[in-house]
Amino acid sequence: MFAEENGLRGDPRLQAISEAIRVVPHFPKPGIMFQDITTLLLDHKAFKDTVDIFVDRYRDMDISVVAGVEARGFMFGPSIALAIGAKFVPLRKPRKLPGEVISESYVLEYGTDCLEMHVGAVQPGERALVIDDLVATGGTLSAAIRLLERVGAEVVECACVIGLPENKGERRLNGKPLYILVEPRELCC
Amino acid sequence: MSACKDEDPRISNIKTRIRVVPNFPKSGIMFQDITTLLLDPKAFKDTVDLFVERYKGKNISVVAGIEARGFIFGPPIALAIGAKFVPLRKPRKLPGEVISEEYVLEYGTDCLEMHIGAVEPGDCALVVDDLIATGGTLCAAMKLLERVGAEVVECACVIELPDLKGRERLNGKPLYILVESH
């Protein structure tokens, strides 16, 4: 579900957030219109509004864990976690986390990749939010959900700044709701 | 300079939350793991607050965070002090036009990149990472910022390994840390 379908229709902050995102054509390969959030991070008000919208949504949902997907999930997740009093758990590419980990593999367009989480970071019964900058196919987020569920946490929602329009309405990932602020931008003018 | 000299009461809890993982990523290295600090909301908040208290109102316009653990501490600091956040990344991660700075590792070299146009001449910058060891990465970060005409005001890290003398590689720029580990 998109923010504007759920109480934020016409909210001027969403338009400013969308306009702060830069489209970089043919990155990382031809045909891909890459949604670059680094320009959003350069706009203090828009960046703050992004975090505030998520914080307003999640502060009263009893969430004890914010899990951020490496690396752009690290740019949004910690600020949300700090504001709602939750812990932050980084979900990382293989061999980056130093302690004992559990791993979940997921399918890419060509081949597979893997996401890891520290054993002991999340306890059974915890209520978790997963955060990343963008949801495309949902493969990475699905792996993140599986990691958290494997240790007995309940994933309340997945939150992304950008999501493809097919995520409108009630599309779910592994049965979990998605909350998205804006659609991808077109390369314009 | 480090906060532990003043022994702010929040420091001791922050220090106890950092986990040491022996022999990672290779034998002989005692890895300073900050992920356990992030599991303690109060200690994580205190960490960010200590930096924010130091830098708020000091006219810092850019917080540059070093991939990837600098991305965890940098943005909350940037948001609280009204600065923009600029990620400094490993090669080929940033999608737009970049400038690159190479630096020396124990074996071989690595490279840090920054988007062109993210930082402007005259910007006052803070560089943030979780830890300073030899200072090589921080030095590369400072060079990137200076090459585009920014002034690096200070480098800020949660942890310093003083025995590796990274402080001396910062070309005289000040370093602010919360915790030392010997």
From TrEMBL, chain A:
Keyword hit for Lipid metabolism: no
Alphabetical list of CDD domains matching this protein: PRTases_typeI (cd06223)
GO cellular component: cytosol
Record GO biological process: adenine salvage; AMP salvage; purine ribonucleoside salvage
Quaternary structure annotation from Swiss-Prot or TrEMBL: Homodimer.
Sorted UniProt keywords: Cytoplasm, Glycosyltransferase, Purine salvage, Transferase
MF-aspect GO terms: adenine phosphoribosyltransferase activity
Name used for this protein in its record: adenine phosphoribosyltransferase
Main location per the UniProt record: cytoplasm
Domain named Phosphoribosyltransferase: residues: 43-170
Family label: Belongs to the purine/pyrimidine phosphoribosyltransferase family.
Reaction catalyzed: AMP + diphosphate = 5-phospho-alpha-D-ribose 1-diphosphate + adenine
Keyword Protease in annotation: no
Pfam families the UniProt entry points to: Pribosyltran (PF00156)
Entry-linked InterPro entries: Ade_phspho_trans, Adenine_PRTase, PRTase-like, PRTase_dom
Compartments where found: Cytoplasm
Pathway listed: Purine metabolism; AMP biosynthesis via salvage pathway; AMP from adenine: step 1/1
Enzyme Commission designation: 2.4.2.7
Gene: LOC104586127
PANTHER family: ADENINE PHOSPHORIBOSYLTRANSFERASE, ADENINE PHOSPHORIBOSYLTRANSFERASE 5
Automatic annotation (TrEMBL), chain B:
Matches recorded under InterPro entries: Ade_phspho_trans, Adenine_PRTase, PRTase-like, PRTase_dom
Entry's transmembrane regions: none
Keywords: Cytoplasm, Glycosyltransferase, Purine salvage, Transferase
GO annotations of cellular component type: cytoplasm
Record's catalysed reaction(s): AMP + diphosphate = 5-phospho-alpha-D-ribose 1-diphosphate + adenine
EC number: 2.4.2.7
Coiled coil: none
CDD domains: PRTases_typeI (cd06223)
Pathway: Purine metabolism; AMP biosynthesis via salvage pathway; AMP from adenine: step 1/1
GO BP annotations, alphabetical order: adenine salvage; purine ribonucleoside salvage
Keyword Transferase belongs to the record: yes
Enzyme type, top EC level: transferase
Complexes and interactors: Homodimer.
Family listed: Belongs to the purine/pyrimidine phosphoribosyltransferase family.
Protein name: adenine phosphoribosyltransferase
Biological source species: Nelumbo nucifera
